[in-house]
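Comment thread on ticket #2218

A.B. wrote:
> Attaching the input chain for the structure job we discussed in standup.
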Amino acid sequence: MPDDGRDGLMLQLLHRVASNGWVYDWIQRLAGVSYVDSKLAVWIPQSECANILDMGGGTGRVHALAPEGSRYICLDVEYPKLRQFRAKHPGGHAVLADATHVPVADSTIQLVICEFVAHHLQARELAALLGEVRRILTPTGRFLFLDPVSNPDRWQSRLLWRLDRGGYPKTAEQLLALVSEQFSITYSERFSIYHEYLLGVAAKRPAAEG
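C.D. wrote:
> Ran it. Output below, let me know if you need it in another format.
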């Protein structure tokens, strides 16, 4: 029989190592983020996007997709990742904060990106995050979300979930339902690398609706 206690300690050690900025970047490359980036890039406007907030932005990989002249803000709860972001982008806008309590003024962000975050949050925490996104987006702003989703039929996915730090995987249907409670979803698609992923684009509802 496996030693669950020993396995748990090993996972904790791996997770701690993975929080290091350069290790995190290396893991992301192995996981196929270049393909993910190609999916995201389609939905990042190249004009009328003065302020971009990357929620759970890690080391700021998405910075490379931001249009020239925009203000990219990388928000994350882990300092080592933000330190790596600042090392790559001296003078970059880094915010150490929880995505459920965002220190950004109301209606000031044209694009919020939330990538690989939802599976780290319980439903009520994700609802709080979505409320913050609604608060800070401009009336015509766009919310772009992407997350691995639970699919027990994929053996690769089952293995990755065992190693993942996120303890709250959701099905695509569950994630869409949670986002739909506060936003109008204008586009969604699923695709697979090792995990199965859900990519969604959403807009704020008019005040009377939401």
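A.B. wrote:
> Thanks. Noting for the ticket: The helical segments are 4-18, 21-30, 33-41, 79-88, 123-136, 155-163, 172-180.
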